Amino acid sequence: TLGVGPRIAVQAKCYGGSVSNKAVQEAYTGMAFYRCQGCVVVTSSYFTAGAREVAAATGCLLIDGPQIGDLIRGRIAI
Questions:
Q1: What is the pairing mode between strands 61-63 and 8-13?
Q2: I want to staple 21 with a disulfide (CB 3.0 to 4.6 A). Which of 27, 31, 54, 55 is the partner?
Q3: What residues contact 59, with CB distance under 8 A and at least 6 apart?
Q4: Is 54 exposed, middle or buried (0-12, 13-18, 19+ CB in 10 A)?
């Protein structure tokens, strides 16, 4: 059998405007409900200060538009 890595809850948002703390709360809730080891919110846009504050408090990783290239190239570990 193949080894299984950690389970990560992912919330993806393709917004024209900013992504609020609601997305972080949804990812964190999904992580707890599905018994994942981590959570991440990815957006093509950017995050509000409130989203960054909640992410810091919950350990949720945030990846915004300018970081997507680094994620694709493996420079950001999830």
A1: unpaired
A2: 54
A3: 38, 39
A4: buried
Say how far apart CA 67 and CA 78 lie, in whole Å: 13
| Closest by CA position to 62, among listed 24, 16, 15, 6 | 24
Cα distance between residue 15 and residue 35, in whole Å: 27
Give, for 54, the enclosing helix (H) or strand (E): helix 49-58
Per-residue pLDDT tens digits of the chain, which is 78 residues long:
455 788 999 999 998 899 999 999 999 999 999 999 999 999 999 999 999 999 999 999 999 999 999 999 999 988
Q: Which two tokens stand for residue 64?
A: 């915004």
Decide if 31 contacts 9 (C-beta within 8 A).
yes
Collapsed DSSP state (helix, strand, coil) of residue 40: strand
